[in-house]
Amino acid sequence: MARPRFGLIGTGFIGRAHAIALNAVGAVFADQEAPVCELLADTTVDSAARGARALGFARSTGDWRALVTDRAVDVVDVCTPNHLHREMALAAIAAGKHVYCEKPLANTAREAAEIAAAADAAGVRHMMGFNYICNPLLQLAREMIAAGELGEVYAFRGSYLEDYMSDPAVPWTWRCDRALAGSGALADLGSHLINLGHFLLGGIARVQGSLQTVHAQRRDPASGQLRAVENEDIARALVEFERGLPGTFEISRVGTGYKCGLAFSVFGTRGALEFQQERMNELRHYDAAGPAARSGFRTILAGPEHPDYRPFCPAPGHGLGYNDLKVIEVRNVLRAIANGTPGWPDFHEGVRVQRVMEAIEQSHASRSWTEVPS
Amino acid sequence: MARPRFGLIGTGFIGRAHAIALNAVGAVFADQEAPVCELLADTTVDSAARGARALGFARSTGDWRALVTDRAVDVVDVCTPNHLHREMALAAIAAGKHVYCEKPLANTAREAAEIAAAADAAGVRHMMGFNYICNPLLQLAREMIAAGELGEVYAFRGSYLEDYMSDPAVPWTWRCDRALAGSGALADLGSHLINLGHFLLGGIARVQGSLQTVHAQRRDPASGQLRAVENEDIARALVEFERGLPGTFEISRVGTGYKCGLAFSVFGTRGALEFQQERMNELRHYDAAGPAARSGFRTILAGPEHPDYRPFCPAPGHGLGYNDLKVIEVRNVLRAIANGTPGWPDFHEGVRVQRVMEAIEQSHASRSWTEVPS
Amino acid sequence: MARPRFGLIGTGFIGRAHAIALNAVGAVFADQEAPVCELLADTTVDSAARGARALGFARSTGDWRALVTDRAVDVVDVCTPNHLHREMALAAIAAGKHVYCEKPLANTAREAAEIAAAADAAGVRHMMGFNYICNPLLQLAREMIAAGELGEVYAFRGSYLEDYMSDPAVPWTWRCDRALAGSGALADLGSHLINLGHFLLGGIARVQGSLQTVHAQRRDPASGQLRAVENEDIARALVEFERGLPGTFEISRVGTGYKCGLAFSVFGTRGALEFQQERMNELRHYDAAGPAARSGFRTILAGPEHPDYRPFCPAPGHGLGYNDLKVIEVRNVLRAIANGTPGWPDFHEGVRVQRVMEAIEQSHASRSWTEVPS
Amino acid sequence: MARPRFGLIGTGFIGRAHAIALNAVGAVFADQEAPVCELLADTTVDSAARGARALGFARSTGDWRALVTDRAVDVVDVCTPNHLHREMALAAIAAGKHVYCEKPLANTAREAAEIAAAADAAGVRHMMGFNYICNPLLQLAREMIAAGELGEVYAFRGSYLEDYMSDPAVPWTWRCDRALAGSGALADLGSHLINLGHFLLGGIARVQGSLQTVHAQRRDPASGQLRAVENEDIARALVEFERGLPGTFEISRVGTGYKCGLAFSVFGTRGALEFQQERMNELRHYDAAGPAARSGFRTILAGPEHPDYRPFCPAPGHGLGYNDLKVIEVRNVLRAIANGTPGWPDFHEGVRVQRVMEAIEQSHASRSWTEVPS
Hints:
By secondary structure, chain A is of the alpha/beta class. Chain A has 2 domains: about 5-130, Rossmann fold (3-Layer(aba) Sandwich); about 135-340 and about 350-365, Dihydrodipicolinate Reductase, domain 2 (2-Layer Sandwich), CATH 3.30.360.10. In chain A, about 35% of the residues lie in helices and about 25% in strands. Chain A contains 10 helices and 17 strands. In chain A, the strands form 3 sheets. In chain A, strands 16-15-14-13-7-12-11-8-17 form a 9-stranded mixed β-sheet. A 6-stranded parallel β-sheet of chain A has the order 3-2-1-4-5-6, with helices on both faces. A two-stranded antiparallel ribbon of chain A has the order 9-10. In chain A, strand 14 and strand 15 form a beta hairpin. The interface of B and C includes residues 23, 258, 282, 316 and 324 of B.
């Protein structure tokens, strides 16, 4: 099969991370042919041209609509602000392209479901950008849970704390605008945590959520005026997974001191696992077997015995970085395309994540437990 | 004033900790005269006599009723299983003794309130055993919050995880019996966490709780038969403090890997604090002031600049232990008695803690937000 | 046997720690009768009287010579500055008292050997105050090494870093005076590290040392003038243990940021151990057995399965403190006296520690490897 | 200027890391044009062809001599075992190519100096592969030291511990052969630590070293027989930097439990810094300014305010990995070539590192302090 040709829309934070991964994936994975960086779209012709030069793309355009219908593009990679995902993804699907879309898939579950259904109907591959679960240590965690190494697993604690909006002086951005961003911390950070919960333990049945907007107004740099923040800074939830396992979620964009605090604990009758993304090369494992006098949490350093680590480095403990997670994710996208079979996390997972987010919001509004539609 | 004479009931885990503290407090605090270890009661004459010899008490008795009315006893120190607190405390109060009682004050909020009212009516001093908050670093945390060092404080995360019942093979004990223990993880561990929340941030207005009994039955060593576990292994709650600050509680006696995991995070606009009891000599402080390129969580080691540390050691970082917290607590009890004024945490705090525990239980039953009566 | 009656000389930092331990040891160890706090000596009659009241001693004196010959004193406990140890210990021995002396035993190895010989000749018990090795986790470490749990042990890294003299503005004290303190960081901190090395791995055969005085002068608060610092701020050494095992020592009283940084690593073919006193309730253990994909350093929290922990607390992870180490040490002293047999670390260990310190100093002067006399 | 065309020799661990970096550097650094992956040499035609395909090189060869004289190659990148560096580098220099060589530059200081002199004489650019110092946080550390943020810096502790040869059952490899590898732990790991010392604090004047071969023989998989290990497993040294600052080095390939334990502490009158490569995104900083009651080591997470971080990610705390360090290093190589001026670390640094290594070996042999030739 020919090397898939990528059309990337967006050159912000996450667009650049995709571009770096597209450039690196072939060299990292010996059995994976490098994709073609074919076409880059950005908001203007100039910025797109600059981006293409910087990011190693062959061509550029100031019009994303041209990209999604470009005949030399096989995969459309959507790295734009949340409210643009729907239109772009649907256009790409309509043009028969495979679609690789950053989280969240859309700003509502209904729109997300519309996109997933369209992609299925068109028979294209669709994959979400939930990079954290690509971590070799989280793959290991999933394997350990599934293999029963923790015994019967009965509790989950998850959190994702960052502090980019702790300071009330941080200006208003599109992330504060419900029409553009959808929810706040939930969409930006919570989507990752929910996906991680799904990855480790399966679907979520119901939630009891609570939202908090710490700073009700922020100064809009465009107008110089205070402007309402239309979504939450913090989301908390009691949750129940479909397998009957309860847990908690804590999600904050005002978690002062945390820079990338995606964390979880999983507890079972025979062991426990803990992880925090700021120390992404460490998985803490407590094994209840053995004598109490020698027991304790063990810090497993990522190494070549763990899934997808060896292609980066044959030596343990040398450390992967955030961008390496995207390299693994891109490899997963390429595999799904090459195999012609669904990958994971696909758009259906994008829908499921959105539904949990919405259930948390509804639960907050009704102050009652809320079922997650399946 | 004469040195107060203590009558201690109970020689288990916590009774011994009280006795050690009663022996040490005079030497540790130069300005504090040592109390008199006058009388020790245990379940039998023999065990009481052995205990008195071992723990430095002048006399012993197998009858706690004799202790509470003993003329040479000024303070009754109740260190028995939960269901005995009420009767003993009321009897001591009736005899005009000061009472120092381990948590929880009683097995229901109503009983707790009855005890507190009786103590007030009798005009005796009454103090609770919530030792963790005596930690110099938690006193520091309280001061920092109160002084605004974290800016406006807007979020609390608290947990208390231990794993003494993670293993399904752990036998049934009185802690599994509602009549004897009241609630499970809530009474044993949650009471400390709630008290800590009160200590740092004030009263709790309402909760949304969820309880989980992981192991529904355990083998009763008395009968050799499986026996129902009548209270929860895990309690989770969304909470709202009276000052309008939301938070979460997570309490577990099946928190595999944790031995004394009382922990919290407090987030504010200008900083954050974090603590975990297993590293009780460390307080993590994030100060948002200063350049981002130098920012990070700072690990403050307990030292003589912190409240109540210097009497133990003039050098920083040398470390206090669990029993030292009891020494501080006993000093607080002695102060309240010497001053003839209410100390803190007194029985009213015991009542408030119990009310939060019951609100969590009621909320679980009704699956709705529940107000904490004030 | 009657309860041994203690005469304590000195009420500074370490004298108070001894007093606290003497008050607590009976209550902590059920099988250990409490010693009698008989007589306290300090530099003046008044300060001694105040100290006795505060620290629970029956009598006091402003004359240490009266204490060492007091007929009601069985054990003389020397907690004075280094240069006084020799005279006091010899006087106590001459009076037929058991002697319990703080480190270092003397300011030179020759004087230390003189004291040890005198004690042996008099047939009294003699014990040193090297409290850190009393830690349950260090006792565990010693057992694990001896039992071969690390395989063949082949390397040691030890350090003891504090920062009490990092700041050049810290005034001159007696610790800077060779006649009063002997060596600097070596005597104050290095003596503990050397003792710890002996405890874990046996005797030290030779050293290659290097000393550094960072701040050559400090202001003497008595005169207001700058005054020479006569001993080292930092000592470093390559060492070889008698069993043929090499290692390194790093000792500093200007280790900026460290408050009680006594630390070591021991490496063997099948495992490793690491410890740092500032986290004195944690022992890190790497076990090379088992699959690489699950390997990592395990943090063992001190608990009742470890030597001498349970008398303090039946629950794991609740934490001992610095003063608890002294309680264990005092118990060891009481045992040696009760048994009438040598305890450890006795004055001969004090001599051996002193010889290593001197070998490091001599090696620094000669800039060559130096044998430790045996 | 045209994009530099790279010829890479070697496709092992470090060759692949170079290839990944060559593919990624253009996308990461917006202002840096991507180099051309022109020609790859490996030991056979087939393995080279496979490597070229996997690693994104245009052409391949089984003959490194053809590579170094290939007209389409501008830069020769030497990633072969140590004993081949000299011949390859000299041949590349003779052909007028720029040379980028992995550490150590050669197996002796004399050979290293020969190479550096040849490169200077030929007027080509020459750069070493010492990737660890490219870490944004180590660049920050260097800046902080240079700017006096730690006050007067007076002590260094450095170590590099890995455990890849802890197990005596690990087979004999070329790294155990003096003719092929030169020294053992020193060449493989110590070279990095010495370079790091140079980077932070400047040249090293003299050393007192001690070497240890823990496992004298290992089984040669080729012959099935035991074979002598000809170089050290552990190197320890007391060192003195030219600026008059003492320190210690500890280097081990049998540091059981460590996977990439390159670590240092730097102490000054006003602060301290600590780093460990296994947590490469954290720099611990102690700032002695401010009140003691708030002091402690602060964990600075790598972020966009630190040198060379932002091109990887605009958000702090997201984490760089080992391969990202190589990307920065390759950017430095490209800059040196583009500027036509010496970069750092160049071959002269390679020579200096080698001289320190040899001085440690000589010091071990003579058991005396040894000057490092300048």
